UniProtKB/TrEMBL annotation:
It comes from Desulforudis audaxviator (strain MP104C). Residues 125-152 form a coiled coil. Keywords: Coiled coil, Hydrolase, Phosphoprotein. Residues 175-297 form the HD domain. This is Stage 0 sporulation protein A homolog. NCBIfam families: HDIG.
Amino acid sequence: MAKPSRILVVDDELGPREALRLILQDHYEISTAQNGHQALDYLSKNEFDLVILDIRMPDVNGIDLLAEVKKKVPETEVVMITAYASVDTAASALRLGALDYLIKPFDRKAVMEVVEKGLSRRAESRKIRSRLDELQLANKTLRREIEKAFVNIQRHYLETVRSLVAAIDAKDSYTKSHQERVVMFAMLLGAELGLSAGEIDVLRQAAVLHDIGKIGVPEQILRKPEHLISEEFDIIRQHPVIGAEIISPVRFLSEVVQIVLHHHERFDGTGYPDGLKGAEIPLGARILAVADAVDAMLSDRPYARARTVAEVREELRRCSGTQFDPQLVKIALKIDLPSRRIT
């Protein structure tokens, strides 16, 4: 059995309070308060569906009490009691959220109609609130499902990216071992610079993926044993842009994109693809430029023999401030290259 609706009657006169209690008690749970302060105390401790309050009371004006009720419990319906009808007072009460008026002396039928109207509106408000709560919960659930699906999409895309890296390895046998050495040398440079764990992680991912754009370069160019002609080199120069485009849809690789895009920029601004200069080049890209070049010089390629460590060190010094960041060159020269090399 449903609990009866709760109604609070507020009037400083005993007669009207009792009259309303007697009219309503057979249908509802009635509480009475003899002044505004007592009414506010009741409202702070109990939940009422409807408040019926006198517009004239000695301690708190009915209009002021209405405002307080609506402030504390805005969904509670309020009916005003008055011995006379005043247009100005009615307008003020309605603006503050009063439902209706009851005129003294009370007509039983009018009281029941107004109370039923108020309780019906209160029940409808509860239904709306309950529905809103359900929708908020559903939205939270839906948001979680969307986020979960997005993470899955990102994960699947990253798996695709890794498959592309493997495909590059198959196209160019040099790439895989080169990638591993670039990762290790970049990590050493990053550690010497005092990069944070998060920055090191971004740098590691960029080092793994820095040549992924070579998937868009024809295999005959990658494997060509002679020096590339101008047109072929123009194609090779597109691989940072292609790589950045491939990984840009992966949200958690957002910081990696710019490093991959700019790892062939030169410190003096003559690199590619955008001709960035000095500090315009992301630090991670400057680090990869050194790590990439060092390993390339230490490796046998189809078109060039590996250089000695002494030759690599001399080349780093020669290109400091032009191709490479001078600060990174100083750090690279401190590293024992042969002992760090993967064979």
